[in-house]
Design a protein that fits this description.
By secondary structure, the protein is α+β, with helices and mostly antiparallel strands. The protein has helices at about 5-20, 30-35, 45-50, 55-60, 70-75, 110-115, 130, 155-160, 185-190, and strands at about 1-5, 65-70, 90, 135-140, 150, 165-170, 175, 200-205. The structure holds iron/sulfur cluster (2 copies).
Length: about 200
């Protein structure tokens, strides 16, 4: 079992960066299957779409700039077409920017949920993240993951805000997702150095 070398790491990071810049459509190859990832606290789909007034306050409030407003153009970048009513609603594309659950900012509440004027996002305390946030669930492709293919990587394990719980480490830093504990923040997907990435978040639908 070898470790991912610095050279290999840089090569993949460069490939990912180049891909980000050059062809956004290639960013998240599995996006078409992942569904729409909403900010934390989003109500069930129909209720969310009827309550959201597309004001963008959640996006403005996000310190990580993780929330974008869904348009055909930005959906196209991630191979995701807006469905009926999706246009102008908030969406997260973790490969570009993931939600860090407001870990690095002051305040008791998740800022997007605090900013939402309509309740389309339920106002949530940071202390409620593990019990009330379910943006999606991380899905691992073992065929792509370095740690399952004779290279010790572990980058996603170190990015997870719930290490040893949502993302556990098996031998040689092989990540193992616990779907019950994963909140779908996407920090693992954001950090994955493999291209195409070995771990993606699938919406909780
Ligand atoms: S919880 Fe915080 S970091 Fe996550 S999307 Fe909302 S405002 Fe952004
Ligand atoms: S703040 Fe609430 S109502 Fe405004 S876009 Fe975000 S989810 Fe929709």
């Amino acid at each position: 079992m070898k470790e991912v070398s610095r050279r290999e790491f840089l090569k993949n990071a460069a490939a990912t960066g180049a891909a980000l810049a050059a062809s956004a459509a290639l960013l998240r190859p599995a996006a078409a299957e992942t569904g729409v990832i909403r900010p934390p606290g989003a109500l069930e789909k129909d209720e969310f779409l009827s309550r959201c007034i597309r004001c963008g306050r959640c996006g403005d409030a996000c310190p990580s700039q993780a929330i974008m407003m869904f348009t055909e153009a930005n959906g196209e970048k991630f191979s995701l077409k807006p469905g009926p009513g999706d246009d102008g609603t908030p969406i997260i594309f973790p490969r570009q920017k993931a939600c860090n659950l407001c870990q690095k900012v002051d305040g008791e509440y998740l800022r997007c949920t605090e900013a939402c004027p309509t309740g389309a996002l339920t106002k949530l305390l940071k202390s409620e993240v593990t019990t009330k946030v379910k943006m999606g669930v991380a899905r691992l492709d073992k065929n792509l993951c370095y740690s399952y293919n004779d290279r010790c990587c572990g980058v996603c394990l170190r990015a997870c805000p719930f290490p040893g719980k949502a993302l556990k480490s098996a031998m040689h830093e092989m990540p193992v997702v616990d779907p019950a504990l994963c909140v779908g923040c996407g920090l693992c997907e954001r950090s994955c150095i493999r291209y195409p990435q070995a771990i993606v978040v699938v919406a909780d639908v």
